[in-house]
Structure formats: C-alpha cells, structure tokens
Amino acid sequence: MDVLGMTTQLLEMNPEYFTIWNYRRLLLRSFFGKTSPSTPGVEADSTKYDVIQRYITEDLGFLLPLLRKFPKCYWIWNYRFWLLAQATRLLPSSIVYQMWQKELSLVGKMLTLDSRNFHGWGYRRQVVSALEELSVAMGSMTNSMTEDEFAYTTKMIEKLELVQRALWADPDSKDQSLWFYHQYLISNFKPSPTGNESVMLDLSNEDKLVYLKTQVEDLLEMLQGAETSKWIYQRLIELSIMSKSLDGRWPVKVADLEAWISKLLELDPLRKGRWQDLRKQMFP
Fold first, then answer.
1. Rounded to two decimals, what is the model's pTM?
2. Which long-range contacts does 221-228 make (Cβ < 8 Å, 24+ apart)?
3. How does pLDDT run across 224-244, given as a tens digit for each residue?
4. Distance (Å, rounded) from C-alpha 244 to C-alpha 251?
C-alpha cells in the first residue's frame, strides 16, 4: 500500500491525529512540487493542471465522509482549507473560483444540519473571504456575496432571538451549551483584529451598538430573579467589552461592571484568577 493510502486509513480511524494530517500535507506538497505547471496559464501545461485538480478534488472527496462522521473535528476543516489554498496557489483563477463556490454550498448544507457547529461557521467565514479576494483579483466583484451575507446576518439574528428566549426559560441551567452558542453568535459583533469583517458584514458599527445595547437590557431584565447565574454576569461583561471596542465607551456604569466581576468572584471561585485578570485588563 502507498504511503498516502496508509495515512487515509489512519485518519479514517482517528481524524484527531494531527501529526498524520501534517504528514499528508508533506506528501501532497512534494507531489505538487513535481507536478506544478512551469508557466501558469500556458496551454501546454493544461495536463498538469488537470492532474493537480484531480488530486485535490479526490482529497476533498475523501474528507466528506469524515466531515459527516466528525463534523466538529477542527483538523478536518483545517486540512480542507489547506487543500483549497493549494488550489488557489497552483490553478487558474477560473477553476479555483468554482471550487470555492462549491465549498460555500457544502458548508451551507453542513450548517443546515447543525447550526451550532462553531467550526463550520468559522470555516464559512474563511470561504467567503477567499471568494471575495478571488472576485477582486478577477475583476468580477458582484453584489451576490453581499446579498448572501445579508441573508446570513438575518438568520443569525433570528437564531440569537431564539437562543435568548430559551435562556429566559432557564437562565441558571446546568446545560451550558446554550450559553456557549449564545457566546458564539454574539462574537460576530466583535471587530476583527486582522481588519477582516465578521460574518455580519452588512451591519454598521452603529447598528451593532444598538443591538448590543438591546442584548444588555434583555440580560439585565433576565437577571431579576436569577442573581445566582454566573453566565448572565459573564455575558454582560463580554457585551460591555465588545461595545467599548466599537465606540470607546462603556455602555453601563463602571460601578455596575465592578459589581458584576465581584459576583463572578463569588459565584465562580475556581476561576478567581481569571476574573481578577479580567478586572485588571478592563481597569488598568
């Protein structure tokens, strides 16, 4: 059996084995180095393009059953993105653009099956970014991506409202998954340190601030009668930090922020160091 086939068998048994993913990259990188067209775009090299495209397409196909079985395995998503990045580097833009479009459709279907797949949402963001860069490079930027992102923004806001209603029913629940999902959805309002936009591309900072303020008000209302829920205090602080990152001002009184940190220290003493560090970061 060839070495690539051996890595396939190992990864089918355990896709969390990141060393094998790295070794598979080395094998393909070596192959691509020997096969890469000497002059991109030259017709004589079309056969080499076909070979590279076939290998990448077959490897993407190998990943599909793994994604269905292990949809939250980071290494599968990471390797998939690497394959498409190699296609972008080695193949003509017209071919690559179609591959990324298919990928956007695929991740959309994955998220339809499980909208709480955080890896899937993060991966979708990368795919959209790659498509936009290719569109600009090809001089064919259209409004279609903006329209798609508007639709996703609407969907995510609707999800936030659904999650919020579920949290209202039991804010102190021992089931933490809803709070984690709420945290993920809210994180899309956060400015990206790299300068790239989040999933919510069509919202202005003013719109984000209004929505964050609404979330804070809802959580404060939820807090009445649920004063022992550490999740509410934690989320209030996170929302306040996001709001300040957008316009440089705290959305609530500093005394309230101090009080919430004190409640976290009281309710979650095992993470005392974390809350103390947070206080120092917020009020240096």
1. 0.55
2. 222/167, 222/168, 222/171, 223/171, 226/171, 226/172, 227/263, 228/172, 228/267
3. 888 888 889 999 999 999 899
4. 7
